[in-house]
Amino acid sequence: MGQFDDKVAIVTGSGGGIGQAYAAALAAEGAAVVVADINLEGAQNVAKQIVADGGKALAVEVDVSDPESAQAMADAAVNEFGGIDYLVNNAAIFGGMKLDGLLTVPWDYYEKFMRVNLDGALICTRAVYEHMAERGGGAIINQSSTAAWVYANFYGLAKVGVNGLTQQLSRELGWRNIRINAIAPGPIDTEANRSTTPQAIVKQMVQQLPLARMGTPEDLVPMCLFLLSDQASWITGQIFNVDGGQIIRS
After folding, report:
1. Residues linked to residue 9 through DSSP beta bridges, in sequence order
2. Strand pairing partners for 32?
3. pLDDT band at residue 199, thresholds of 50, 70 and 90?
4. Does 155 participate in catalysis according to the annotation?
5. pTM (2 decimals)?
6. Residue among 22, 86, 110, 155 flagged as catalytic
7. CB atoms within 10 A of CB 82
8. Which of 79, 82, 140, 249 is deepest in the core (most CB within 10 A)?
9. Which domains, ranges and CATH numbers included, belong to the chain?
């Protein structure tokens, strides 16, 4: 018996990295998981592993910046598993992203980036919230970042937006018994991080952490499970740092 038996969770961007860790952990706790990713092959591989481990999973290709694609994802979850209880908005452009400033980034790239990294969380929430309400409520997690509190160009700006979106949506969703919170990771050791962030910057960042090591996707999993669980039934509209002490907020 798991704490999420008979529940259905969608995790976007779960074809690898942090999203994969979230999806696997939810499945291990009994949830039927929709492994949603723009990389269908990656999603299929994760879903196959979950099933091989005794869980329930469905791989779905999704472009979170496209409302029709997000709606198709929600419909697939309902058709396969009967409803939706949880959504983890993890999908983002990060691995291989351009490193540029707000004043100089090509405008078409900026618009595409924000459409995925900020608007995508709202688009997916709009696709699922009525299904959650039909089940008596649910819970949503947005993936933020400590980049929201330091200079991190348009990536940081998107995460500031994710934090604000989390707070604003808590007011619109609360009366439907749907909670929404955000997790803000510090530096996490993923392939996307290794291929995108200059490693000299990563090393310096880690040396300055009170808990001076890189985080792992598994470090984020307990917070994800807690925020989706009934243990967090009176928590909404909050941003939780899981960052080795990187950011101090008073």
Report:
1. 33, 86
2. 8, 56
3. confident
4. yes
5. 0.96
6. 155
7. 12
8. 140
9. 8-242 (3.40.50.720)
